[in-house]
Each structure stands twice: as C-alpha cells, then as structure tokens.
Design a protein that fits this description.
about 220 residues, globular, binds zinc ion, 8 strands, binds D-xylitol-5-phosphate, alpha/beta, TIM Barrel
C-alpha cells in the first residue's frame, strides 16, 4: 500500500508575533498538516501553548491540525483540544495510564488518533496499538524542544514499525518528529516514515521557500 508522503511544519519554531502569516506561508508552500506541539512542563521540561492559541489559528487555515500532546494524563484534555479545532490528536504512550481509554476518548470526539513513543521506548511497547490508531509518531529527539539534532539510533524503530504495518497490511501512518532537515529527509524516508514534522528547518527562515522545497522533494519521491 503506497501511503501519501506529507510534511507537517511545527509551529513551535514559528514567529509568534506573525503566526497567522507564517501559517499562511506553509499552507501556500503545499504543507498538508500543521503540527502543533503542546507541552505542560511536567511530561517535558518546557511549556509551549494550549487551547486559546489553537482556537485562534483555526480560522486561519484549512490544513489538518496535527496536535502533539506532550502532557501527563492526556485523557483529561481530549475534549477541549477536539473542541479547539484539532483534527488529529497524538498522545504519548508513556504519559497514559490506560492508552486504550485515551484512544476511545479521541475517537468519541471525532478526531483521528496518533500515539507517540520517546526515543528510549521500544516499538514492541506500542505494537499492540498499531491496528487501533491512525498514526504512530516516533520521536527522533527527546521531546521538549525544537532545534535538536536527530538521534540516528531511532531510525531502527521507524524501520521496525514500517515492517510491522506492512506485514499486517495496516494503513497506519508513521510520523517522525525531531531534527528533520532537508538534508537528512532521505534517511527518514528510507527508514519508512511517511509524515515528516519539521520545525526549525521550515520556520527558521523563509517558511514559504522551505516548505516548497520539502514538498517538491516529497512529491518527486511519491512518484
Ligand atoms: C519537540 C517537538 C517537535 C519540534 C521539532 O519536542 O515535538 O515537534 O517542534 O522541531 P525541530 O524540527 O526543530 O527538531
Ligand atoms: Zn512534535
């Protein structure tokens, strides 16, 4: 099954005084998803933003809102994120006491479901959920900050996930997040990812030009 290759620019690295314009730029550049990183200062050391920001940018774009929750006990907030405009909600396996209950709660609110694992969590821990979610997010840096270097040792896990879904004939998307650059995109692609989060590589300078470059490359690889 040939999956769509998609870019998901992460607004964590956007210029917040110009957030609307930055979002328009990546939409115009051809991005499919808008990756929105929510951090609570507990699951990860940093704090980013939450519902009010998501609500206010919802009317700026038709892109898929790909909300990455880096928060403890995510089930508490699913309803609010769904109501704020999330289309796809990804939670961390490590943060949920009962992952299946979180999956059910996300579906109950009409959103697609993503599940994520940190660099040190083995694929085997998340494998039982692969037929229950729409997307697996493999973190390729320790979650918490943009602008880090990708950890090459995480690529094996992307490969294991791709082999697993191929073998089982599952449509589950595989997203990678952390340290994705134009120059190393091929590594993630070869490992089997099909959705690519890029924060600093897109918003660092010229979001429109960077998005175009990424999307042209992916379109060419899509064939
Ligand atoms: C990190 C976030 C990422 C981050 C990626 O915890 O989940 O989405 O924005 O930023 P870059 O692409 O700069 O590594
Ligand atoms: Zn993220």
């Amino acid at each position: 099954m040939k999956q769509m290759l998609k870019l998901a620019p992460s607004i964590l690295s956007a210029d917040f005084k110009n957030l609307g314009a930055d979002i328009k730029a990546v939409e115009e550049g051809g991005a499919h998803y808008l990756h929105i990183d929510v951090m609570d200062g507990v699951f990860v050391p940093s704090i980013s933003f939450g519902m009010p920001v998501i609500k206010s940018i919802r009317s700026a774009t038709g892109m898929v809102f790909d909300v990455h929750l880096m928060i403890v006990d995510p089930i508490r907030y699913i309803e609010e994120f769904a109501k704020s405009g999330a289309d796809l909600i990804t939670f961390h396996l490590e943060a949920a006491e009962d992952p299946q209950a979180v999956i059910d709660e996300i579906r109950r609110h009409g959103c697609k479901v993503g599940i994520s694992i940190k660099p040190r969590t083995p694929f085997e821990d998340v494998a039982p959920y692969m037929d229950k979610v729409d997307m697996l997010l493999v973190m390729t840096v320790e979650p918490g900050f943009g602008g880090q270097k990708m950890m090459p040792e995480t690529l094996g896990k992307v490969r294991a996930a791709r082999d697993y879904v191929t073998e089982k004939g599952l449509p589950t998307d595989i997203q990678v997040d952390g340290g994705v650059k134009y120059d190393n995109l091929h590594l993630f692609l070869e490992a089997g990812a099909n959705i690519f989060v890029a924060g600093s590589a897109v918003f660092g300078d010229d979001p429109l030009g960077n998005t175009r470059k990424f999307c042209e490359y992916l379109a060419e690889k899509q064939g």
